[in-house]
Design brief:
Blueprint (H helix, E strand, L loop, with lengths): L49 H20 L9 H21 L2 H9 L10 H12 L2 E4 L6 H6 L5 E4 L17 H8 L6 H16 L2 H16 L2 E4 L2 E4 L2 H4 L2 H6 L6 E4 L2 H5 L11 E5 L2 H15 L3
Parallel strand pairs: 1-2, 3-6, 5-6
Antiparallel strand pairs: 3-4
The structure holds fe (ii) ion.
């Protein structure tokens, strides 16, 4: 997610109870506003690697096909790209065995996400639809906040398909297939989490700019950096934790204050995008998160 800079068409009518989205219900992508989609930040390890940039742009280009055909194009990943995946996925799996939510670990297996090869969005999309009626759609890169979150109201997550630069397998300044497939996608197999995500999407479509900022914090402290209590233990489920060796290890040290989840506090707590997170919040369950978020989003339309 990027900080908001542009507004998209807001659609005030929505139903929080409509989880029966079909492919035909998806809006046209042409309304989406992209932000510097093919520009890499200066601190990107691939910024001065011409071959990498060309390859990244070629894979990003497949997302444009999707907008015309609604079919996800598989990527023929190179041996070097597969190697990057194997290195990162193997190391993350070791740390996750102790630190990740049991639900998440099981979901990874259900989706066929392994350390051997980069999973295709098309495969994971098919399985997710069966498990929780959630969808994936390829995207070129970062999208501004309101547009990105709004797609969740269609039970759809926009996902990148390219992979980080091989010089630094542990790091990426932008979402990549590691962050999407190892961080985000397994959580959507949980119906409560999928519904919660959809509520965030509904919220983004009707939020004032102030509410959108608060919603961004809720997303940050749950979807990206959330912890959950499971059988008396604290485990990670946030994508930013599960897809980063450094963050996942740091989350369980004394460097981090782990607080019980409190919605009011979360939506009023600013965060730094690029620093290690000093405060994390622990939800009691996905069901709790879903119901708390439902009430919160319902309050948007009453103000
Ligand atoms: Fe993310």
């Amino acid at each position: 997610m990027l900080p908001e800079t542009a507004t998209t068409k807001t659609e005030p009518e929505f139903s929080l109870s409509n989880s029966e989205i079909k492919d035909e219900d998806l809006p046209e992508f042409r309304d989406m506003q992209f932000e510097k989609i093919n520009q890499l930040d200066l601190d990107h390890p691939g910024a001065s690697d011409e071959d990498y940039r060309a390859r990244r742009d070629r894979i990003a280009g497949l997302a444009k096909n999707f907008r015309e055909t609604h079919v996800i194009t598989d990527v023929e990943y190179t041996a070097e790209e597969q190697k990057v995946w194997q290195i990162v996925a193997t190391r993350l799996e070791e740390i996750q065995a102790k630190r990740a939510s049991e639900f998440y670990l099981d979901a990874k297996k259900k989706l066929g996400i392994s350390t051997n090869r980069i999973p295709q969005l098309s495969e994971m999309n098919k399985r997710l639809k069966e498990l929780s009626n959630f969808r994936l759609a390829p995207i070129e890169g970062l999208v501004e906040t309101r547009a990105f979150l709004s797609w969740l109201s269609y039970r759809t997550m926009l996902c990148t398909q390219y992979i980080r630069h091989p010089s630094r397998p542990e790091y990426t300044p932008e979402p990549d297939i590691v962050h999407e497939a190892i961080g985000h996608i397994p959580n959507f197999t949980n119906r409560d989490f999928a519904d919660f995500s959809q509520f965030i999407g509904h919220g983004a479509r009707i939020a004032t700019d102030q509410q959108l900022e608060e919603l961004g914090r809720l997303y940050w402290f749950t979807v990206e950096y959330g912890l959950v209590e499971e059988a008396g233990e604290i485990k990670a489920f946030g994508a930013g934790l599960l897809s980063s060796f450094g963050e996942l290890e740091n989350a369980f040290t004394d460097n981090v204050e782990r607080r019980p989840f409190d919605l009011e506090q979360v939506i009023n707590t600013p965060y730094e995008y690029s620093d290690m997170q000093p405060i994390l919040y622990v939800i009691p369950s996905y069901a709790y998160l879903k119901e708390t978020t439902r009430k919160y989003i319902e309050s948007f339309s009453k103000k």
